[in-house]
Amino acid sequence: MLPYKADTTTTIIIITISIRQGPHGLRNSVVRAGGVGGGGGDAGEAGIGVTLLWSALLLPPSSSTRETQLRKELPIQRPGSRVILCHLYHQDQDRAGGGAGCGVNRGRQTYGEMTVDIDYDENSHKTVAEQELRRYNRIVEQHGDQLEEIIEALGPHPAPPWDPKLDPVMLKMTPFENLSLVKLVQSGNKMVNKVVLTFSALCLEASQLVEEAQSKLYPPLMLYGNGVAAEGEKTGESQMSLSRVLSTLHHAACYVQRVQKVIRNIMHQLTSLYRTDKKSSVTIDVSDVHFQVMYEHLGSLLGTLITMDEVVLSNSVLHEHWGAYRRLVRSAASDQHRFGQDKASLQPLEKLLADVEAAVMQGTMFMSVLRQVYDCEGLVVTRNGVLREEMMTVVLGWCGQLEQSSGEGWWCDNQPQVVGVTALAVFHQVVFNCQDKRLSRVLGNLFKKFPSITLVGSVVWLPERHIPSAAPTLSQLFDRKTQDALLAHRTTHLAQKTQTIGKEAQAVNLQVCGWAVNLDAAARKHSSQMNNQDLNQRASLLLQGLIIAHTVKYNMETVLNLHSVLSRPMGKACALSVCSLVESLKAIEHTYHRHSSLLADSLPHVIQYLTYQVLSIISSVKNRVSNSRLDAQRLDILMALNLVENMLSGSGTKERRLVTRVALSLANQARALRNEDISSLLVGLRRLDLACELQTRVKQATNCAILYHHTVILPTYLTNYMQTLQHVHRIHFMLAALQDCAVQLDGCCHLATPDQLVIEFKEEMYGYIKELVLDKVCKEVETELRLSTHSHLQLDSRNPFQTSIRDLSPLLALEPFCLLSSALISVKDYVEQYLESTFYALTVVAPHDWRTYEEMRNLAASKYNLFTVPSHLPSHTLDQGVDVLEIMRNIHVFVCHYLYNLNQQFFIEAASNNKHLNTVTIKHIANSIRTHGAGIINTTVNFTYQFLRRKFHVFSQFLYDEQIKSRLLKDRQLWREAKANQEHFPYESAEKFNRSIRKLGVTPEGLSYLDQFRGLISHIGNAMGFVRLVRSGGLHCSSNAARFIPDLQDVASLEQLCRDAHTSPQTLTAAENLDAVINNLTRNFHQDTDYFKLLVDVFAPALQDKKNSHLKNFYLIIPPMTINFVESSLAAKDNMNKKNKSRAAFTDDGFAMGVAYLLKVLDQNAAFDSLHWWSGVRRRFIKEREKVEQQRQLCSSGDDKLQQTLALTMSRLQQYQQEFELMYLSLSSARVFFRGDWASSSSSSSSGDSQKSDTQSIGSDCSGKEKPLNKSSESNA
């Protein structure tokens, strides 16, 4: 270790690394570095603690293999121990030789059993140092480049921009000290050492007791009762809660006893110094010495007891539960059989409860210290006039100092000092049993200057009510009139604060912004380039933020607590101004946290600079004392000043600064220190204290845990936040303030689980944020998207120059904010999830509006950068269309409202009131089968059978009608007579039949009986087409399920393989289930059930029976029905191009399917083929077209009207011919489904020959003309 030298700027760094698990699973490395080593000890014993923490890609504890790999990857090569020893040996030799001589020196060094010859010259270490520095510079640059690449690869982190609790990088800059007070206090004078050591130890213990009460006693006592139900006494919850906090109450009782002993010791030590007997042997002359630091710590310790008394007395729930618990213990002692405890076993508990009640629950902890006996152990304290006057002098001086302070200077945290000086004054009056009217005036002025004194949380101390009960001698000084005057002063002060707090909040905001800008500007200059002026400026900037924070916190606590104490309602403007002050407080904390690296770099230099200023004053005083005549008193002063110099030469630890103040108090006698020296020293030491404890004091000054007791202002803040949307980023500061509440709630110990109160508080805060911010943002974004999407409709004016439009983009672009360090809330992600669920749900409800929601989705992405997941609906919702079960149950409705396409196998809705038409395809049927199972196929056939039974009844009645039957018999007779003269059924007869049926009457919709009969056949065909579609969907579903099986023909038994492998019974069961599934898939895939054959066989015997002989002429009505179908089809296709698309259609293959099915059921295929209807139709239209062509050639070219008429006639004939050909192809395709091995050979042969002749006839007729359309032509049509 190298001792610290005052004339060098070298900083000794001692690094220790410890790994701990972070809150997000990151490994945090804590590096403690001691800077500015002390002259009073080694660098390892004293220094400024700087904690540097990094967590970027830290590796776990490495093994030998990992360490070898790291040595290959990292550019840093660690030198061996022998190289380091050799280098240190060279440095020692250079120091010993002093650089004497020139040229090359040769030496010999022995390491163990090895002897090394070393050649070096006097400048060799400089050359090596320069090379190492250059190499180190390259390493740092490479490391920086690697870190930048890592940051770019990781991208933005979803965590909030700052969170002191969750932040993986943390800097601890509190100075640390490894030396005890006994080793520190070494002045060379035993008497001085004893006095300084005694008072320093007492002050240190007093400060430790104060910290113990603040961290371990205040939170559980103050939070007790929160989260406990009102009827807890009946349910036993109150007794359980008190039993959990009983250890804390016992701790408080022991704490009071310890405080009593410490205060008694302090008074005895002071009495030993300030003796009234002049002749007695006094250790040291302190007649002119004022140990104010001792009295300050004494007042702070007494103020702790006052705080605990107020916390206990203000908690009514604690007293209620205490009474219930005492009654329970008494009941247990009296009823031994019920509780299973005898009276002797409960005596220790009863004694403990009695001690706690006497020491803590009565709220007399401060009184117990006042009334304890101090005249003991041979010392008389109460009649020590010198000590009484000394203490009164200190109290009056302390009050004067607080009264003169503005609250905005270096003495900014005045509330604890007001409590301390008041407690000390009461202690003085009670212990010495005196009455000084000066205290009334001084304390009255002090209470008016500080009208609100917050002890902890929302506990406000009213000293004028506390003093008369604690000190009866002061009751006359603080009578009822004085109390009313102070109460009126508080009311007036609150009214003034309420009016001016808005302007104060704005001024504070500007002040904080200016301070942050100046700090950013100062951070640009490196600490190695700073001079004294720069150091002074940086020190002032670092401490200015702390002073601002103390002032802002006092104003915030004053307004909140005075409204609560005086029961005054708080207005909206006042609440928003308080929230603005809270944001400013957390902005200050954020600024310090953001400049953590600046603090780590500058704070050691600032502390050294402030120490230098104090040392310069001490040096001048020391010279002045040394130059004067030295007597015993001046020697003591000189020794005290030497001790101050020794303490300030080290790091600014708490112990060293405490010893410094005690030694300065001892040196401030015999006018050794002038007034200007005292003022400068007070300011310098105060600045040094603030700088050394900057991190801790900033945390205390910016702590907003008081908001837990005033959460009613949060809804007002969030409501205004959504209404204005100004400075949206400041919500991070408000949520950081709520995090302070969570830290305080961790001290709760009366509930079943330690984090129960935190969870309840978190749920409450999240409820506010969700209701007042997140949900409103979602509604506004959805409304804006809807209005923008439907801007083509007649809506209200949305002119931005007339109506203000809220811009939600800044709020949506806000970084995720952290709620109580356990939940990240991203407004953007929340809105995206809301839009996803909304679009999905509304698309399911109204599938026809899917395009609207897709437009809203795209608009959200382009306007707000909101990317939502597309609504991939499952197979049973939008993708399925109409459900098979619904079709099956309402098949009679389905066949009427849907049209069938034979070639592409789909149904399309005939008409709809919506914007789109529904379709049913193979994919939809397959999805339904996958949803409901393969059993719906057989059920569909059964429903179709029931439907066909009803339709065949209507079918039979129509053909049995006399009008129809007579015309069919007539056509049959004509065809028999004309059969010998012509090959095909006469077209004129079919056309005449169609016209004659219309003469029988039409429906209101203009449909004839033949139209209705054609519709009946189309419905039958649609039913058959639906059966075919279901069968195809089943095969499609089976093929999709079986595509993962490699070979359906050779499926290995997994069960047998598992048995051969001797697997467990559970594995065998799983193998059996898998084999069953595979067999089912294979069976469904190979199943070849022809449902058409079933539906033909079930109806053919009955319909071909002699009782239904009127059905034998059905084939004769097909020609007029084809003419009727062609006319209807052409009309429907013409309507496709019209604006009113009523009765528009482009396909209706259900008619062809129905005709083919009926021909097969009635066994009339051969009879229909014998008509040669299609060839006759073809020849007729060819002849008609030839006639028209001849007329066009014969007419004169000048007759334009005739030419147009002939062109229209030719176009109409072509359309009719094309439509008849499509009808022929559709019927031929449909008849294929009803041919097979099960068909009779005679029917097949006759039908095949007839159709072949018919086809050949058509082919021969269209040779040289236009060829008939194929199936693809129909598809394209």
From TrEMBL:
Residues 707-1049 form the WASH complex subunit 7 central domain. Coiled coil: none annotated. Residues 140-704 form the WASH complex subunit 4 N-terminal domain. Pfam families: WASH-4_N (PF14745), WASH-7_C (PF14746), WASH-7_mid (PF14744). It comes from the Eukaryota. GO terms for biological process: endosomal transport; endosome organization. Residues 1238-1277 are annotated as: Disordered. One of its GO terms (cellular component) is WASH complex. This is WASH complex subunit 7. It comes from Scylla paramamosain.
